[in-house]
Amino acid sequence: MSEENAGVSEAEIAVHWGEESYFHPPLTFVAQANLTDPSIRERFSLDNFPEYFKEFADLLTWDKYWEKTLDTSDAPFYRWFVGGKLNASYNCIDRHLPQYSNKTAIHFVPEPENERIEHVTYRELWVRVNEFAALLRDFAGVKRGDRVTIHMPMTPELPITMLACARLGAIHSVVFAGFSGKACAERIVDSESDVLVTMDSYYRNGALLDHKEKADIAFLEAEAMGHTLQKVLVWQRYAGRYSSPTPMVDGRDFIVQDLLPQYRGQRVAPESMNAEDPLFLMYTSGSTGRPKGAQHGTGGYLSYAAWTSKMIQDIHPEDVYWCMADIGWITGHSYIVYGPLALAASSVIYEGTPTYPDAGRPWRVAEELGVNIFHTSPTSIRALRKAGGGDPDKYDFHFKHMTTVGEPIEPDVWKWYYENVGKGHAAIVDTWWQTETGGFLCTTVPALDPMKPGSAGPALPGIHPVIFDEEGKEIPAGSNKAGNICIQHPWPGIFQTIWKDPERFVRTYFAKYNKNPKSTDWRDWPYMAGDGAMQAPDGYYRILGRIDDVINVAGHRLGTKELESAAMTVPEVAEAAVVAAKDQIKGIMPEIYVSLRPGVEPSEELRKRVSEAIAKEIGPIARPRGVYIVPDLPKTRSGKIMRRILAAISNNSGDVGDVTTLSNPETVDIIRTMHS
Ligand code: PRX
After folding, report:
1. What is the full DSSP assignment across 91-121?
2. Contact 166, 117 (CB under 8 A)
3. Of the four listed, 89, 461, 635, 659, which is most buried by Cβ atoms within 10 Å?
4. Distance from C-alpha of 420 to C-alpha of 27, rounded to nearest angstrom
5. How far apart are alpha carbons 172 and 149 in whole angstroms?
6. Averaged confidence pLDDT in the chain
7. What pTM was computed for the model?
8. Dmax over Cα atoms in the chain, in whole Å?
9. Rg (Cα) of the chain, in Å, rounded?
10. Cα(334) to centroid(ligand 1), Å
């Protein structure tokens, strides 16, 4: 064992982060925050589990109050708030009408800047959801328990469609609009949806895209897989004007706006759902195999989305809240639609690309609408920074609170966000969670905990993580040693199962650390997130990325994120991705791909500096075999860097796998040429 490896076993991941110092939330933020009770973590200690989750459920309006907080008799298939009845659309709309009828529920910002922003009040949302629910029920035959696939872009009609499904007790399955017709078909078939709701077109990066063509492909592909859709409902991006070159198919496709007049003024009583009835499916791709339909329940999910939105996002009804994610992802479900609307907030929906027509766009939107809570991902922050930042200081907006989600954020990028976008006076939360978890798991409580760049913070109050090594041994808390992060217990937001695949649910998330498959005690079923993480002595967690992304160099397990963060201390570097390359001598060696900030030219000198930065920050063992400066890194539509593709290139594998779900597939060939 070399010196660098000393004290690190095969089962552990080595870490070399330097400690970052704390940033404190401004007093003006603390003074108005929703959660300021310093005893919260004591009250929410494991001794009081699961009863403290009552506080979450009590944010909702129940048709029938629940009797039992948690039923574990079929662990790990849990039932939350047993005996309770409620409706999600009622909770997000109807109950706000007495007080907030004329308040904006949704600000819709079209991508073309010459189109007016649309403001949908709670009352209008109520009218539109009722009318569309009536249409779904009476025209398309949708009823309680049916699945409805929704393949729609970021327009108000998307939450209207989701909430109409929820009103009827139908289970929605939203497919990200950027996904192909084929990906949509797989989800239609798996969920056995009879109805597809789509839109004719939408704007993205300055172009009006034909979206209807994907519905035709989805229909045919699903049919080829043995499943025939009964109806395709097509919203028009511009009511009264069909905006797609793809023709409508007679008897199968129907324009929603043509049908709606028949349902004008109709009201649909919200179905009273059991707390554990499914609210939606959200498909997420595993590293292998077909997409998994994460099934989320009504009462548990909604109470978790509402509580975390109130206490961590610090949403008050008078706030203007903008989450730049897409509703086609879990972030959009929990933190554009269900959480904010359950709290009667005003939620912004932006149709297009954040940097269109330039990086100043988000700040113009923030200024025009008075946005004061902003929520985005490290990828978007890097993209904005790369595009020059758009001069946030030139615009008159002030975020009291900002969120980052989806990937570990490099401390450097965090500081740029804090200083430039937050103008030095916003509270930032770095929220770690997953499609499967329904809402945040690790984060700071913005008014209680100081921020530490690069750290997700301590766990959410009421969430109790544990870190295991590969052999299932608990890594001592606060030891700064990395391992596999798990949650010791269930929580209301956890998904209920994988749709039609309960066995895979148990195998993927619980089997590794479960000792007794027959146990009905939650203590025997830690939830395995699949991420590497470490806990510092102050209790803050640092997420190192997917455990599959760990690189083992000479018996030394390195988190890719650490190397990337080190590379990004070189100011010219905009983005970085590290992969494991097979090496004849060392077994595995890291290779790094970086893209540069605008105006910077690639050079040998720069390549050397990247390599040096990694050797200096982490140690010579981590020095990459190659540093490749590329124009852009391949990314999924949700902005995650596709290390799998880069790894295939690094290993001279002819097959880079499916690139159709990338936002920038053209980068793959460019990078391959540069690497060879
Ligand atoms: O690896 C973690 C990373 O994103 C994964 C979950 O992805 P997804 O299901 O698409 O959900 C994204 C929105 C919650 C996690 O397993 N991840 C998410 N948030 C963070 C993160 N990694 C580090 N820090 C975060 N804040």
Report:
1. HHTGGGHHHHTTSEEEEEE-SSTTSPPEEEE
2. no
3. 89
4. 19
5. 6
6. 93
7. 0.88
8. 76
9. 24
10. 14
